[in-house]
């Protein structure tokens, strides 16, 4: 059965993110390798991954597209602040089922809003907001019956997180 995963703020190839976020890697090459291996150890070829933005920095469109081809799964992109420069390239567009500013999925009778930035515009039709922008190391809390979950790699062992793992809380 197809599994559904979420991830965000991977910042592949971004040397300074190691220092900014205290990531446990000595070099950017090590970080790239570990995160790609973590991804492919968890995600199978026919699974679906929602990527909540900030895929990679300090690299070309070709480099990012080569990376995306090596990462298992069909992908849906929710744009982050560092992805906007890429969206006009057809090679980049072709790596995704769709590219969106935000996206709503239904799971277990709940509507989950997927955004790069934590949303401040939640109405009664939304029960959860998955986001990643703040790079925090904590990943779950509830405010007025809305569940917020940070799917970013810094809070999820540098790997995509499966929807069943999130729903467990
Ligand atoms: Fe980010």
What does this structure look like?
The protein is α/β, with parallel strands linked by helices. It has one domain (4-167): Metallo-dependent phosphatases (Purple Acid Phosphatase, chain A, domain 2, 4-Layer Sandwich). The protein is 24% helix and 24% strand. The chain is built from five helices and ten strands, in the order E-H-H-E-H-E-H-E-E-E-E-E-E-E-H. The strands form two sheets. The protein has a five-stranded mixed β-sheet. Strands 5-6-7-9-8 form a five-stranded mixed β-sheet, with no helix packed on it. The two termini are 22 Å apart. The model has no long low-confidence stretch (mean pLDDT 95). Bound molecules: fe (ii) ion. Fe (ii) ion binds at residues 9, 11, 54, 80, 133, 135.
Q: Strand order, main sheet: write it out.
A: 4-3-2-1-10
List the ions, cofactors and other small molecules found in this model: fe (ii) ion
Q: In the CATH scheme, what's the topology name?
A: Purple Acid Phosphatase, chain A, domain 2
CATH H-level superfamily title: Metallo-dependent phosphatases
Oligomer type: single chain
The gyration radius over C-alpha positions equals: 15 Å
Q: SSE string, helix = H, strand = E?
A: EHHEHEHEEEEEEEH
What would the average pLDDT be, to the nearest integer? 95
Number of helices: 5
Give the N-to-C terminal Cα separation: 22 Å
Q: Helical percent range?
A: 10-25%
Net shape: globular
Number of structural units classed as domains: 1
List low-confidence stretches. none
| Share of β-strand residues | 15-25%
Number of strands: 10
The largest sheet, given as strand count, sense and whether it forms a barrel, is: 5 strands, mixed
What is the C-level CATH assignment?
Alpha Beta
What's the CATH architecture name? 4-Layer Sandwich
């Amino acid at each position: 059965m197809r599994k559904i995963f979420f991830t965000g703020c991977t910042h592949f190839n971004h040397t300074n993110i190691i220092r900014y976020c205290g990531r446990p890697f000595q070099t950017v090459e090590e970080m790239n390798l570990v995160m790609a291996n973590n991804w492919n150890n968890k995600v199978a070829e026919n699974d679906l991954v929602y990527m909540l933005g900030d895929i990679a920095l300090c690299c070309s469109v070709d480099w990012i597209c080569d990376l995306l081809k090596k990462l298992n799964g069909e992908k849906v992109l929710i744009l982050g602040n560092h992805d906007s420069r890429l969206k006009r390239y057809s090679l980049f567009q072709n790596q995704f089922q769709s590219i969106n500013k935000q996206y709503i999925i239904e799971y277990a009778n709940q509507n989950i809003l997927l955004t790069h930035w934590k949303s401040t515009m939640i109405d009664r039709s939304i029960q959860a907001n998955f986001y990643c922008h703040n790079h925090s190391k904590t990943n779950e809390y509830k405010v007025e019956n809305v569940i917020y979950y940070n799917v970013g790699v810094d809070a999820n062992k540098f790997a995509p997180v499966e929807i069943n793992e999130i729903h467990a809380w």
